[in-house]
Design brief:
Blueprint (H helix, E strand, L loop, with lengths): L1 H13 L6 H24 L1 H6 L1 H22 L11 H28 L11 H31 L3 E6 L3 H12 L5 E8 L8 E2 L2 E5 L4 H7 L4 E4 L4 H5 L2 H9 L3 E4 L18 E2 L2 H4 L9 H8 L3 E5 L4 H11 L5 E6 L2 H14 L5 E5 L5 H11 L3 E4 L6 H6 L1 H21 L4 E7 L8 H21 L8 E7 L1 E2 L6 H10 L4 E3 L5 E2 L1 E2 L1 H14 L5 E4 L5 E2 H12 L6 E3 L18 E4 L5 E5 L5 H15 L4 H11 L18
Parallel strand pairs: 1-2, 1-5, 2-4, 5-6, 8-9, 8-11, 9-10, 11-12, 12-13, 13-18, 14-17, 15-20
Antiparallel strand pairs: 3-4, 6-7, 16-19, 18-22, 21-22
Helix pairs in contact: 1-6, 2-4, 2-6, 4-5, 5-6, 12-20, 13-20, 15-17, 17-18, 17-22, 18-22, 18-23, 19-21, 22-23
Length: 643
């Protein structure tokens, strides 16, 4: 009860404004005054002290004036005591040394001149030395005790936390959580993933090893949260047993922004900390990209981005805008998302000259007007219909938007002198089993054959065409992760098409960086494929997301493969091989070359068929253009030639 009363009284005191400067100075002077009186008493005895009390008091008052002057000169009392630091302690020690020296000089001078003893008694050398040590100790203890009580009050009700990592990132996080107001977490220890500093004290708390006993240790110490340093996120991501144990026992896992967003010096702000999400835990290796070199190529250029309001397109907008292009022309047919992009550009990149245009890439007259007016140096083509089931049911739209739209943009890029055209493709274009994947493969063929025709002089122009091919990006619109989140939020069930289905995943930011690097450094005609890391079983992804949400009784239901869906995706055809490039995560696919004239004739046939809206006829022509297109779980399987 006494402890509770002390905490309540301390809380009342610290809820008030800081003690005024004069109050701190008065307390410090009182400490010096009492120290001198005590030194007189200790050195001369009680009876002598009482007999000369008046002279001792006057002598102490003279000394206090000297000390107060040096407290004023060195500003020892201007800081807020509850926030005292070593700098404040150094000032106290410096003021005490200087004041003691001056007091000794005054005492010696009065002694030589035989003055003062009848009116006030100046302290002897021993007394000055005692006061220096005793007074310095008391003044420092005064500040440390106030700080300790304040920290105790702040930590009342706070949650216990470990920091995962003992390098700069972990130390920066620890400093930030100790300085935050109001304090939410109390630092109880560090975890050393690599065994550094095990058993030692760091910032006053112990460093523990990242071993099999870690979870039990955290439970015994009633740890509420584990805060992961961004410099150790890749290591932590692979500690699947520990992660599962933490989630099952209700211990929060808190993540910080990626290490590349930190300058290595400033503290991590607590408000940027977020509870762990599935994107933080999927196994992947960090992708390093030389963004400065990319930025040097894009700076001062006119950049056109199609599909600018989509998941990949909007991220590319943000990354390109950082490098101060001369102008950005942003195109998408989705009005509301484009309005959001316009607001984002005005808010974050007001210094960039950007044009947000709502139109379809298949609107040839409008697109020609845009190219004629802006004449972009670089085109990043991310616009496409991408949902497999939707395109299975609407093949005419896949042809008119994906295939014809790409041809419109590609032809205009050549006509108006674009230096480089970069198309975003998909791993579904490899051995396609659905209309969407096949439409993207036909886009690849057209761009590659047009580049070849330019190189051979059959088409006049200088545009270089580059294709980038990769798999699923985490959290993109319509992907499984947002779908699972919504299903879990609604209490389930979570729907997975097949227990063995697997997919490759990559962060949107990482995918866009690779697109920019491949696009800017490609020479033309290449199809770049990205190393997507290890595949992930979708059912495992669903289970982990349910655990992260702390949801109870959420079932997983298998619904069967959708029309055109594969159990696994490929980034290469069986007949394709790869060649290394300037980046270890990017390879060049060695694919079959196509004649440009044939590609044009095939697209004309396909476009004409699309205007009849005869789904079977459209898909039949697509299969003729791309013989490896074999439908699965689809009504179009009847069109496939049986082996």
């Amino acid at each position: 009860m006494n402890n509770g009363l002390l905490i309540r009284l301390s809380g009342w005191y610290f809820s008030r404004k800081a003690l005024p400067y004069w109050g701190v100075l008065l307390i410090d002077c009182l400490v010096i005054f009492c120290s001198y009186l005590i030194s007189f008493y200790i050195l001369n005895g009680g009876s002598w002290f009482l007999h000369r009390l008046g002279s001792c008091v006057l002598g102490s008052c003279v000394c206090v004036v000297i000390y107060a002057a040096f407290f004023r000169i060195l500003h020892t009392y201007t800081g807020i005591i509850r926030y005292s630091s070593f700098v404040d302690m150094y000032r106290v020690v410096g003021a005490m040394m200087a004041a003691s020296a001056v007091t000794w000089v005054l005492q010696w001078s009065l002694h030589v001149m035989k003055l003062g003893s009848s009116v006030f008694l100046m302290p002897k050398t021993r007394s000055i030395v005692i006061v220096f040590f005793f007074g310095t100790l008391l003044l420092c203890l005064e500040r440390l005790m106030v700080k300790a009580v304040y920290d105790l009050v702040r930590e009342n009700g706070t949650k216990m936390a470990f920091v995962y990592g003992v390098r700069e990132g972990g130390i920066s996080i620890a400093k930030s959580i100790r300085s935050q107001e109001p304090r939410k977490y109390r630092l109880r220890g560090f975890i050393s993933p690599n065994g550094e500093l095990n058993g030692l004290l760091l910032m006053g708390v112990k460093v523990y090893p990242d071993d099999d006993a870690l979870l039990l240790r955290m439970l015994q110490m009633n740890i509420d949260a584990l805060i992961v340093s961004p410099l150790q996120s890749d290591t932590f991501r692979n500690r699947t047993a520990l992660i599962d144990g933490l989630l099952q026992n209700g211990i929060k896992i808190l993540m910080m922004p990626p290490a590349e967003e930190w300058d290595g010096k400033s503290d991590f702000l607590e408000d940027r900390m977020h509870e762990v999400d599935i994107e933080d835990l999927l196994p992947r290796k960090k992708i390093e990209v030389d963004m400065d070199a990319i930025g040097a190529l894009l700076k001062g250029k006119k950049i056109l981005i199609t599909g600018a309001a989509g998941s990949i397109g909007s991220e590319m907008v943000r990354q390109v805008a950082k490098y101060s292009p001369e102008q950005m022309i942003l195109i998408d047919q989705a009005e509301t998302p484009m309005h959001d992009i316009r607001l984002m550009m005005a808010r974050q990149f007001s210094y960039v000259n950007s044009q947000t245009i709502v139109t379809s890439i298949a609107n040839q007259p409008r697109m020609e007007h845009i190219f004629k007016e802006y004449r972009p140096d670089y085109v990043f083509h991310a616009a496409a219909y991408k949902h497999v089931p939707m395109m299975e049911d609407n093949p005419s739209e896949a042809v008119q938007n994906n295939i014809y739209g790409t041809r419109v943009i590609a032809d205009l890029s050549v006509k108006y002198g674009t230096k480089k055209f970069v198309m975003v493709s998909t791993d579904k274009a490899v051995n396609p089993t659905n209309v969407m994947g096949c439409s993207k493969r036909i886009c690849e063929i057209y761009c590659q054959s047009l580049n070849k025709a330019i190189v051979e002089g059959k088409v006049k122009g200088e545009t270089q065409f580059v294709t980038t091919r990769f798999g699923n990006v985490l959290g993109s619109n319509g992907s499984v992760i947002p779908l699972f989140r919504e299903q879990i939020k609604n209490g389930g069930p979570v729907t997975v098409t097949h227990p063995d289905i697997i997919r490759f995943f990559m962060l949107i930011s990482e995918a866009c960086k690779l697109v920019l690097e491949a696009g800017t450094f490609g020479k033309g005609g290449e199809i770049f494929v990205f190393d997507m890391g290890d595949p992930v079983k979708i059912v495992d992804l669903a289970k982990r997301m349910i655990s992260l949400s702390h949801a109870k009784n959420v079932d997983i239901v298998f619904t069967g493969l959708r029309d055109g869906e594969k159990l696994y995706e490929e980034v290469l055809n069986d007949s394709e091989s790869t060649k290394p490039t300037f980046h270890p995560k990017i390879k060049i696919a060695s694919v079959r070359e196509y004649d440009y004239a044939d590609a044009c004739r095939n697209e004309e046939r396909l476009l004409a068929a699309s205007r009849t809206y005869d789904d079977m006829e459209i898909v039949k022509i697509m299969k003729e253009i791309v013989p490896e297109f074999k439908s699965r779980h689809s009504k179009y399987e009847v069109l496939d030639v049986k082996d």
